[in-house]
């Protein structure tokens, strides 16, 4: 309790000052009234924390990573997109200029997947619209190259060697 008209000092402040060996001053220890900014006040509507997914989606959108991440998802989830049997015999190898190139184990698999091209493109467009896939090219296994080394003589390749 304050004596002789002095303002009352909060107990916590008085205890602190006593422990420090200081005398409480005659300052006005009344708490200052805070100016409440309604926009940033806690527990107001709209101040609830967002989900981590929403924060990451905003970050990828603001940084311009949507297309790159969508292309990565397409490659990583090829088995789910094309089916497990098809994925055993094919894999996406490049995506340039809207053309997705898929390498197959055999020319037979490449030909069969060409028949399914419209279905696969539709599914890619539905699942990964930001990837920018406009067309698909299915290729078979590579043929052996007869050109080795830094210098290559022009010619017909193995026909010159074998006759």
TrEMBL record:
Pfam families: DciA. InterPro entries: DciA-like (IPR007922). It comes from the Bacteria. PANTHER family: UPF0232 PROTEIN SCO3875. This is DUF721 domain-containing protein.
């Amino acid at each position: 309790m304050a004596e002789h008209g002095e303002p009352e000092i909060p107990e916590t402040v008085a205890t602190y000052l006593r422990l420090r060996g200081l005398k409480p001053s005659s300052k006005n220890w009344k708490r200052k009234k805070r100016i409440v900014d309604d926009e940033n006040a806690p527990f107001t509507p709209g101040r609830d924390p967002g989900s981590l997914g929403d924060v990451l989606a905003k970050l990828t959108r603001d940084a311009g990573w949507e297309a790159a991440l969508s292309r990565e998802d397409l490659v990583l989830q090829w088995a789910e997109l094309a089916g497990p049997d098809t994925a055993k015999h094919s894999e996406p190898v490049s995506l340039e200029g809207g053309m997705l190139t898929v390498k197959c184990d055999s020319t037979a698999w490449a030909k069969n997947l060409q028949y399914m091209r419209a279905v696969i493109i539709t599914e890619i467009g539905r699942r990964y619209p930001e990837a920018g896939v406009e067309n698909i090219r299915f290729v078979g296994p590579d043929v052996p190259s007869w050109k080795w080394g830094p210098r290559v003589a022009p010619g017909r390749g193995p026909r010159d060697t074998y006759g």
